[in-house]
Amino acid sequence: MPRKAAREAAVCLVYQRSMGGEGGIDDYCAQAGDVFLSDEDRAYLSDVLDGVEKNAARIDEQIGNYAVNWKLSRMPRVDAAILRVAIYELLFRDDIPEGVSANEAVGLAKQYSGEQAAKFINGVLGKLIRDNAIDKRGTTGST
Known about the structure:
Blueprint: H1 3-18, H2 25-31, H3 39-54, H4 56-66, H5 77-92, H6 98-112, H7 115-131, E1 132-135, E2 139-142
Antiparallel strand pairs: 1-2
Helix pairs in contact: 1-3, 1-5, 3-5, 4-5, 5-6, 5-7, 6-7
């Protein structure tokens, strides 16, 4: 499974959990038609799912800071899931270039939410990247 597909699975699982579901990687694979995951895919998915959960307050704080005129509670959950995965990658995954995280998030927004969501997500992530020097340990500081 290419990283793009693994990222899509991560967004789907983050979304599912935001809706009260408790599905895991194996459940997702079964529901998606017995998708095969390499060890690398499983490690990425596990890291993202655990990381989004453990760092939810920090990630949601960033969404609140950069989603101008939007409260997280009123945001479409699919958009929030896409932002959570992308912001987790930006803050905590030093193996993924910032541009890749942002571009993939925009693509997922177009696929699952629509053009307006894609523009919104691009704006949020672009501003986060421009306004902050991303420190992969999860802190940001002005440049």
